[in-house]
Amino acid sequence: MSPSLRIRLLYLWRKILPPLPPKRRGEVQALLRRSSRPDFDYFVLVVLSSIIATLGLLTNSAAVIIGAMLVAPLMSPVIGLGLASITGDEVLLKDSITALLRGTAMAVLLAVLFTWLNTRLPIIALGDILPREILARTQPSPVDLMIALAGGLAAAFALAQPEISAALPGVAIATALMPPVCTIGIGLALGEWRVAGGATLLYLTNLVAIAFASMLVFVTLGFRAGASGADQSRRNLRISAILTLFLLLPLTYLAYEAFQQGTQDHLIRQAVAAAIPSVRGVELVDVEYSRQNDALQLNITVRSDHELRYEETRALQNAILSDLSALRGSVQIGMAFNQILVERLDPAVPPTPTSTPTPTATNTPGPSPTPTPTATRTPTATRTPTETPTATATRTPTRTPTRTPTPVDARAASATFPGLYMRQSPAGPVIGALRPAERVTILYGRQTINGLVWI
């Protein structure tokens, strides 16, 4: 590029986006110094926003999480870090790093504490699958990096231009830092290291991308270090750019894994949905699958108006496996069907009463009696003594078997805090509590005291 063309482009760029006057640059730097200082107000906002974000993540409430994004003060130290890297402001650099480290550590610890308490007390019931809002922050991708870069550009520009500062709340929502930090604490408390690791990568992605984008904006708006710090500013900008590009490696890998998993999920569901209509009276309810090493297990739930025969399940299995031929070469596929029997009733048509046949006694003719010859009269026999009767043996009564109690599986249900109490004895002292939906086994024994049935 010729020098004249470079000068023209620079002139056009400065005409479109002129640098800030020195007075405004000083105001921006003073504003970031105040908002990046790790003082009492800063930590109060960190505590409140982390509590709100943790509860919002556990309850899967997007509205609550958005509220935590607006309260969280972590954006200012990140932008202050970018400005300090350009201007060489050591005070701002020290305050920004201290605020970020302490605020992040405090938010993680609070998230661990609240999640641990929730596992001990049934405040928020967590199932086998974590809430969607938590899982959404465990698989960052290059898209998240692009969002963080755009959000950092918008945040720094809105901070430098007072007339568009109303856009800052929207930027805080787009590039949220507090929800990933609280997701780290939730993953640590639950022992879900994959959740904690994915949230850590998302947090670092947002942190580095926002700082790098803010550095670009401040350089464009005319922020400069002194003559002695110009080389250091350029070096900091290059380091930030390298870190941003370096984050693309794990993000790309995770995005590739997510793409493969999404493709596999679509292929499985499409194959099952295409095979089910081949059997009369069968409807698909749900498809679940789990993969361990090189084995893929499908659990298919269907609804039908008749009991499936073995031949029908084999036909379904063969049809599904033929559509999953692309996966059969790499994994071993197992399959199980869960059947829900249904009976279709029409409210407009009453059921037809079915008569039950009653057995009728019929006379069966027997053989005709054969006449016997008349007996010849014989001499009268001499009377013999009467035989003494013997005692008849009485039948020993059969012992009636007693009913053996059978254990029953049940689930605890309670709408009050802290759950369903377990007592040492009927109406005795409390020795523990069962969380809602927790599985229990009822063995035997039942006793009624004051109108209450204890089991």
Beta-strand content: 5-15%
CATH architecture of the largest domain: Up-down Bundle
Give helix % range. Answer: 40-55%
Radius of gyration: 40 Å
Number of domains: 3
CATH fold description of the largest domain: Glycerol uptake facilitator protein
Q: How many strand units?
A: 9
CATH class categorisation of the largest domain: Mainly Alpha
Classification by helices and strands: mainly alpha
Query: Order of SSEs, N→C?
Result: HHHHHHHHHHHHHEEHHEEEEEEE
Largest sheet: 3 strands, mixed
For the biggest β-sheet, the strand order reads 1-2-3
Number of helices: 15
Overall outline:
extended
Oligomeric category = single chain
Mean pLDDT: 79
Which labels suit this protein?
455 residues, mainly alpha, Glycerol uptake facilitator protein, Alpha-Beta Plaits, 3 domains, 3-stranded mixed β-sheet, two-stranded antiparallel ribbon, 15 helices, 9 strands, 52% helix, 12% strand, extended
Quick structural gist:
The protein has helices at residues 3-16, 22-35, 40-58, 62-71, 75-87, 90-120, 132-135, 142-160, 168-174, 178-190, 193-220, 230-246, 248-275, 310-323, 325-328, and strands spanning 282-292, 295-304, 332-341, 408-411, 420-423, 430-434, 439-442, 447-449, 452-454. The protein is mostly helical and 455 residues long.
Write up this protein:
With 455 residues, the chain is mainly α. It has three domains: 15-246, Glycerol uptake facilitator protein (Up-down Bundle), CATH 1.20.1080; 264-341, Alpha-Beta Plaits; 408-454, no CATH class. The protein has 15 helices and nine strands. The strands form four sheets. Strands 1-2-3 form a three-stranded mixed β-sheet, covered by helices on one side. The protein has a two-stranded antiparallel sheet with strand order 4-7. Helix 11 runs antiparallel to helix 12. The longest helix has 31 residues, at 90-120. The radius of gyration is 40 Å and the shape is extended. The protein starts with a helix and ends with a strand.
